Amino acid sequence: MNFQLEEAIEILERTPKTLQHLLDGLSNSWITCNEGEATWNAFDIVGHLIEGEKQNWIPRIEMIITKGETETFPPFDRFTQIQQNAEKTIEQLLDEFAKLRQDNLEKLQCLVDSQTNLEQTGIHPEFGVVKLREQISTWVAHDLDHLSQMTRVLAKRYQEDVGPWKGYLRILKQ
C-alpha cells in the first residue's frame, strides 16, 4: 500500500495553485474550449471540483468516521456545476475552489487520525463498502485526473494547428 495521508495532502494542497497558474488570466477562448459536444471545458472542470469540495470529499469522510456502515453516502451529482456557475468568471471559480480546498484540508487534518481511522469503512451507493483511505486516495487521483483532462482539452484546441508534429504529441492522441 502506497497511501500516506501526509503525501495525499501534498497533492491536494497544490491543485488550487496549479489551476490558478494555468487558468488565471487566460482568454475566454481557452477557458471555454472543449473536446466536442457534451464534453467539459476548463470552466466546467473547475466548477465540478468545487462541487466535490462542497458535496463529496469531506461529507463522505465525516460519514465514514461518524456513521460507518450505518448509512449510505448520498449520491453525488457530477453535473450540477453546469447550471450553477453560468454567471461567474473563471477567476471567481478559482478563488472559490482555493478557499473551499483550504477549509477542507484543515477539516481533514482535524478529522482523520492516520493511526486509527484509515481502515474505517462507509457505504458508497454504487461500490458498497469503501475504506477511508480509499476515499482520500480517490480524492487525490480525482484531482490528478481532472488536471490531466484539462491539459488535454487545452492542447486539443491546437490539434490541427500543430501540423506534422501531431504524431509526436501523445496528449493529442488521447
Question: Could you give the topology of this structure?
Answer:
Blueprint: H1 5-23, H2 28-31, H3 42-55, H4 57-67, H5 81-84, H6 90-111, E1 121-124, E2 128-131, H7 132-156
Antiparallel strand pairs: 1-2
Structural description of this entry:
Residues 76-103 form a coiled coil. It comes from Bacillus changyiensis. The chain has 174 residues and is mainly alpha-helical. It has one domain (5-172): Four Helix Bundle (Hemerythrin (Met), subunit A) (Up-down Bundle), CATH 1.20.120.450. The chain contains seven helices and two strands; from the N terminus they run H-H-H-H-H-H-E-E-H. It has helices at residues 5-23, 28-31, 42-55, 57-67, 81-84, 90-111, 132-156; strands spanning 121-124, 128-131. It has a two-stranded antiparallel sheet with strand order 1-2. A hairpin with a 3-residue loop joins strand 1 and strand 2 (128-131). It is elongated. The two termini are 29 Å apart.
Put simply, the count of helices is 7
Total strands? 2
Largest sheet: 2 strands, antiparallel
- The CATH homologous superfamily is named dinb family like domain
Which CATH first-tier class would you pick?
Mainly Alpha
Q: What is the helical fraction, as a range of percent?
A: 55-70%
What is the structure about, briefly put?
The protein is mainly alpha-helical. About 55% of the residues lie in helices and about 5% in strands. Strands 1-2 form a two-stranded antiparallel sheet.
Q: Which terms would index this structure?
A:
174 residues; mainly alpha; Four Helix Bundle (Hemerythrin (Met), subunit A); elongated
